[in-house]
Every structure is written in C-alpha cells, then in structure tokens.
Specification:
The chain has one domain. It has 167 residues and is mostly helical. It contains 3 helices and no strands.
Length: 167
Amino acid sequence: MAKAKATPTRKTQEEKAMIDDPKKAQEVFGQMTGKAVETMTAWADANQRVLREVVELGAATAKEGVRLYAELQQSAIEALRDSQAAVLRWQTAWQNGGAKDPIELYQKAMADGVDGAQKAFKLLEGQAQAFTRSAERLQTSAEQAGKGIQETYTTIVSKVKDVYAQN
C-alpha cells in the first residue's frame, strides 16, 4: 500500500515561516520561556503552601503530644499520691494496733483494695478518654491540612491551565 503524501498544512507553513524569520522565532521562544517561568513560579508557590500546611500539621501534632503527655503525667502523679496515702494509712493502722484486732485490719485492707481498684479503673478510663480526645484533635488538624493541600493543588492546576491556554 502506498502512503498518501501529506499535504502541507497551514501550521507547517507557519512553522517554516517562523524558522525563516528570526524575530518570529525569538518571539515564540520568549513566549515559551515566559510560560515556563510562570509555571515554575506557580509550582514554587504551591510547594511553599503545601510545605506550610505540612509544617503546621507537624507543629499541631507536637503540641498535641505535649498536651497529652502533660495530661497523662498529671493523672500518674495523682495516682502516686493516692498510693502513698494508702501506704501511710496501712502503716498507721498497723502501728495503732493492727495486731490486736486483725479482723478490722483485714476489713480495712479489703475496703482499701476495692477502693484502689476503682481508682485504677477510673485512672485507665481517664487516660483512654485523653487518648481519644487527642486523636480527635489530631484528626481535625490532619483534615484541615488535607483540605489546604487539596485547595492548593486545585489552584495550581487551574493556574497552569490558564498559562498554557494563553496564546
């Protein structure tokens, strides 16, 4: 099969005229260079915005980590105080005649044991709630950062389309 010879189109004739005319070639090169610079500027701006969102997310995460650590540390200190108070109660009960009335001592020990278990479960519940609140705040921060990044890329795509749509 013989291929049909392509007829010169208007575009190829313009391209030939451009090659023959150095001023026209410089003008086209200038336009292309301008578009490339505009595109790179838009991408640099977008990268800066995305980096800002990522840094803000990292800072919010660090801040949340410190907040959670402080909350957990505070509850641990309260638990330590409670355990020290229980030891002192035991020590005074033993010194004040625990050996004279062992049944009363055992009853107090059982009551303190139940009370200690309840406090331990309340402590665990409080820590679980602290973790949950922290995770919710981190999720909100991550969602905001994601929306900001998505908006940035939507904007950059439309800017680049506009740059290359211009003739």
